[in-house]
Write a structure and sequence with these properties.
Helix content is 32%, strand content 19%. The chain is built from 10 helices and 9 strands. The chain binds S-adenosylmethionine.
Length: 267
């Protein structure tokens, strides 16, 4: 893959780098998993702050550059020439994640981070502003969609600050922003995530239209929210809908919903 395709826009703004490091809320000695270290613009400040760094970089030329810059046997830095989408991200124990992400794979990287469970302490990530806005979006806004609810089901996302193209060499064509992701530290049922995917499969369609293929139609039709679109509902409300369709009592509702036993959706 060419350099451009690998999303190689290197940070050159010291204030931005310092703000990313400050936003990590990590202690000296903590392990930072750095995604896409490139030539080490962020790696240097991370090491200077006293962190141990496990750096995952796909481009062998960047890895060679990093290894020439810092002693290979340094206890504080290990550089791994691997694809972040294929690496076992739990192998270093609980980590704080940092990175100026390769923008072309932001969503799959986020999905991998969310599947780390308690191995993810916090992540501070530089990404395209448009994506950052989707992560923190609220119902009824243009940006609210599957990526918003996927993120908000796993974590509390905060858009910390914007970064202009001039902060990079080569400047990207888009605006960027730094997001902090703090996991909720509670297990998320994968079946609920699949349900969220169905709810948003056609964003402009109602829940009735999106869900009738997956649940008994009479249950879907009976939902008070059947005529609404998923993009109008808070995560908590989507969760209530899911519990109703599964025939489980809804902890958010005073009136438990009971479904005929034979109408339950089987996973
Ligand atoms: N952190 C550096 C900086 O700020 O100057 C570089 C950031 S650059 C936006 C993204 C980096 O991710 C590049 O070095 C690129 O080679 C690397 N990268 C791209 N795809 C990757 C992948 N699948 N796995 C690991 N690293 C990847």
């Amino acid at each position: 893959m060419s350099r451009q395709k690998l999303g190689q826009h290197f940070l050159r703004s010291s204030p931005v780098l310092a703000r990313i490091v400050d936003s990590l809320r990590a202690q000296p000695g903590d392990t930072i998993l750095e995604i896409g270290p490139g030539k080490g613009a962020l790696t240097g400040p991370l090491l200077a702050a006293g962190f141990r760094v496990e750096a995952v970089e796909l481009d062998p030329a960047m890895v060679a550059h990093l290894e020439a810059q810092w002693p290979v046997d340094s206890a504080a830095l290990h550089v791994h020439c691997i694809d972040v989408l294929k690496a076992d991200l739990t192998r270093w124990g609980p980590v704080t994640v940092a990175g100026n992400l390769p923008y072309y794979i932001t969503s799959p990287i986020l999905r991998r981070l969310y599947s780390m469970g308690t191995f993810l302490r916090t992540a501070v990530l530089l990404m395209q502003l448009e994506v950052a806005e989707r992560l923190v979006a609220k119902p009824g806004t243009r940006d609210y969609g599957f990526l918003s609810v996927l993120t908000q089901a796993h974590a509390l996302p905060e858009l910390l600050f914007r970064v202009p193209p001039g902060a990079f060499h080569v400047p990207p064509k888009v605006q960027s922003a730094v997001v902090r992701i703090t996991p909720r530290n509670q297990a998320v049922d994968e079946a609920f995530i699949a349900f969220l995917g169905w709810c948003f499969s056609q964003k402009r369609k109602t829940l009735r239209n999106n869900l009738r293929a997956y649940f008994p139609p009479h249950l879907v039709d009976a939902l008070p929210q059947a005529g609404l679109r998923a993009e109008q509902l808070e995560l908590e409300e989507l969760h209530s809908v899911w519990l109703k369709l599964k025939g489980q009592p809804d902890p958010h509702s005073s009136q438990p919903v009971t479904n005929p036993p034979d109408s339950r959706h089987t996973e």
